[in-house]
Design goal:
alpha+beta, three-stranded antiparallel beta sheet, 29% helix, binds zinc ion
Length: 98
């Protein structure tokens, strides 16, 4: 179902940084404590903890095409595509591409 903000939150299980969960102050929800970034990688996507500067989860889509809905970010689609191409180009220039 879409709202005026786009697609509803359909998450059935949240992912959190294990270190953040251990350090969470009493009375603070994991949602309020989390300081994560989500982003595309060359192989899929990754969740990164900004507080601990460590990986929360890295997902390899194994070359499969996936459907997604970024309704609220429609105008940014080209920006994301361009950013992925920039990352790929920079990895290629550094000889990191596998
Ligand atoms: Zn953390």
């Amino acid at each position: 179902m879409k709202t005026d903000k786009g697609v509803d939150n359909k998450i059935v299980q949240f992912l959190h940084c294990a270190k953040c969960l251990k350090e969470i102050p009493k009375g603070v929800s994991p949602m309020d404590w989390a300081r994560n970034q989500f982003g595309w990688t060359l192989k899929g996507f990754q969740i990164w903890c900004n507080r601990h500067e460590m990986n929360v989860g890295a997902f390899d889509l194994q070359g499969n095409k996936v459907g997604y809905d970024m309704t609220t970010m429609a105008e940014d689609r080209f920006t994301i595509k361009n950013r992925q191409e920039e990352l790929k180009d920079s990895k290629l220039q550094k000889g990191e591409q596998k």
